[in-house]
Amino acid sequence: MLYIFDLDNTLVFTDTLNNIGYNQALQNMKLSPIIDKKRITRKDLDKYSIDEKTKQKIIQFKLDYFLSHLFKTELNRLLYRVVISSAVKKVLWTKAEPKRVIAILKYYKIERCFSKIYFFKKENIQKELVIICQENNQKTVRDIIVFEDDSWILHQLALLKIRYVICK
Predict the structure, then answer these.
(1) Residue 78 — very low, low, confident or very high, per pLDDT cuts 50/70/90?
(2) Domain of life of the organism in this record (predicted)?
């Protein structure tokens, strides 16, 4: 058996800090904030008429802001108990930026709870999970349980008949 955990808004609630970071960066660049999104992403920056250099400045400012305000994130206490108490092998599966992932795990002192961190785009769910299974000696995807909050990913897991726990 293998437990596969998503990070953002599954194991750690990060939407609020993420959005504050992006909006601080946008305001610093004299751009209007994004207020109508549950979670602001890099794709949302495409709505602004800005060059790539400006876009990268916004992304870097957001990352720096996020890293210096980790206290504004919130640990999912229920999943935390599973992570620290379960004897089942655990891995992290995320599309988040590596520097931010490591900082969050260290902040909550759970970096050693996972045997490996998988950084994927989460676009080809079946392919990514097959890789994770193979690298962790799981014979099939039936030997895993995925902890996830993203509705599109949950739908893909259901279509693939992969066991999952909805975390919201």
Answers:
(1) very high
(2) Bacteria
Q: Where are the domains of the chain?
A: 2-13+73-166, 15-71
How far from chain centre, in Å, is Cα 118? 11
Q: Are 106 and 130 in contact (CB under 8 A)?
A: no
Protein fold of 2-13+73-166? Rossmann fold (3.40.50)
Q: What is the pTM of this model?
A: 0.94
State both tokens at 134.
């193979």
Q: What is the pLDDT of residue 49?
A: 95
State the SS3 of the chain.
Answer: CEEEECCECCCEECHHHHHHHHHHHHHHCCCCCCCCCCCCCHHHHHHCCCCHHHHHHHHHHHHHHHHHCHHHCEECHHHHHHHHHCCCEEEEEECCCHHHHHHHHHHCCCHHHCCEEEECCCCCHHHHHHHHHHHCCCCCHHHEEEEECCHHHHHHHHHCCCCEEECC
Q: Are 111 and 47 in contact, with CB atoms under 8 Å apart?
A: no
